[in-house]
Amino acid sequence: MNWRLLSTLVLLAAAALTGWAWWSQRDKPAAAKAASRPDYVLTDFDVVVLNKEGRESFTLRAPKLTRDPSDKTMDIATPLFLIPAKPGSNGGPWEVRSQRGWVNAEGDEVRLRGQVKADSTNAAGKPINIATEELNVFPDANKATSDVAVNMTQPGTILTGLGLDADLETKNIILKSNVKARYEAKAR
Fold first, then answer.
1. Measured distance CA(127)–CA(132) in Å, rounded
2. Do 166 and 173 form a contact (C-beta atoms < 8 A)?
3. CA–CA dist 167, 188 (Å, integer)
4. What is the CATH number of the domain that holds 93?
5. pLDDT in tens, the chain (188 residues)
6. How many domains are contained in the chain?
7. E strands of 100-139, at which residues?
8. Which secondary-structure segment (H or E) carries 158?
9. Which domain holds residue 78?
10. 148 part of a folded domain
11. Whom does it interact with, and what assembly results (predicted)?
């Protein structure tokens, strides 16, 4: 047997074995790793969340909440957030609903997605209704923002626009751009 042929076969076998060893020891892609299980799940619950001063920041009701142990965030199915009116504020509490919710690890940011509806009353007791597909709520700061289409309805007025900045305490709501107003006469 030719020594060149033998050395070539040995080198090919060594290269194949090295390649196989390298391939089997590689890091698996993140998608291939098993999804982490939640460290807890709440079903059909009500929870009152307190702020740093020990006062109610908001109440949450939902059929299901799961908490991710790796980043301490929470995913919520069809949440209802009740944000109380602060003493001396303009109007009543807020009721905010959506299809999905997400809360950051610190609990100071809530992202609501899918058919978001926020309802309250102004200082005169008249309803304020906001509808959008995305709303980010910052309960400790009493603020809300959105970068998508928003409809805001008050008696006699319907405002539509793109984006929103809201002070939930004072009920000062600013639509950012493409604002259109429609006025409707009161029914007598």
1. 17
2. yes
3. 33
4. 2.60.450.10
5. 577 767 777 777 777 777 777 777 776 555 544 567 888 899 999 988 887 788 887 889 999 999 999 999 999 999 998 888 877 777 788 899 999 999 998 888 999 999 999 999 887 888 999 999 999 998 778 899 999 999 999 988 999 999 999 988 788 889 999 999 999 876 55
6. 1
7. 100-103, 110-121, 127-138
8. strand 157-167
9. 37-183
10. yes
11. Component of the lipopolysaccharide transport and assembly complex. Interacts with LptA and the LptBFG transporter complex.
The residue type found at 52 is: K
105 Cβ contact list (under 8 Å, min separation 6)? 71, 72, 73
Tokens 């007025």 -> residue: 157
How many residues does the structure list for the chain? 188
**One-letter identity of residue 27:** D
What are the C-alpha distances in Å from 99 to residues 48, 125, 143? Answer: 20, 27, 20
* β-strands 127-138, 143-154 pairing: antiparallel
**Residue 6 placed within a domain:** no
Whether 30 is covered by a domain: the verdict is no
**Token pair of 129 as six digits:** 């209704």
